[in-house]
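Dear support,

I submitted the protein below through the web form. The confirmation email said the job was done, but the results page showed an empty box. After a refresh the structure appeared. I'm attaching both so you can tell me whether what I see now is the final result or a partial one.
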Amino acid sequence: MNPRISFARASVGVAALVGVLSGCAGNGASGDAAAGGTRFVAGDGSTTQIAAAERKPAPVASGATLDGRQVSLADLRGKVVVVNFWASWCAPCRGEAPSLEQVYTENKGKGVEFLGVNFKDSAENAKAFERKFKVTYPSFHDADGRIGLGFREVPPNAIPSTLVLDKQGRIAVRILGATTYSKLNPLVAKVLAEK
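What the results page shows now:
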């Protein structure tokens, strides 16, 4: 066999194998060192609204926020709660931060609370993110992913992800991927209007 043909065939085979292996990780897979090897994927922005009769309760989640306060989801029952999973290393999280803050600012006086879950991140980087994007609602520092793992019934399996909990503490909405003001604000208003 001609050595040139063998080399060409081997090159094509290696290129095909690399392409197949790249596809196994999924688009937007985040397994690099900066992301802590999270293996989370970028969400596509899809929204799931869950009928009241089919809603599952959010897990018991409590802990220290980035500013050192103790917070519990159970203490927020009776209010609509928006839970946003984010990280400073996540580019879509930076893009959605102003929209989240705007929805929070416009709705906090109406019985809506926001709670971030800073995922697989250093406290210093997370605090710098909050300062840069002027985030005023509290965030858990979930460096080990413990809080995120508690949401098994409706998992936030993309970073960022946003959940809207109804007044009974049940998951009413899940958004996988970055959200916007025009997407999130009407969903919050809809859940807030429920009796």
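Response: this is the final, complete result; the empty box was a page-load delay. The first strand starts at residue 46 and ends at 49.
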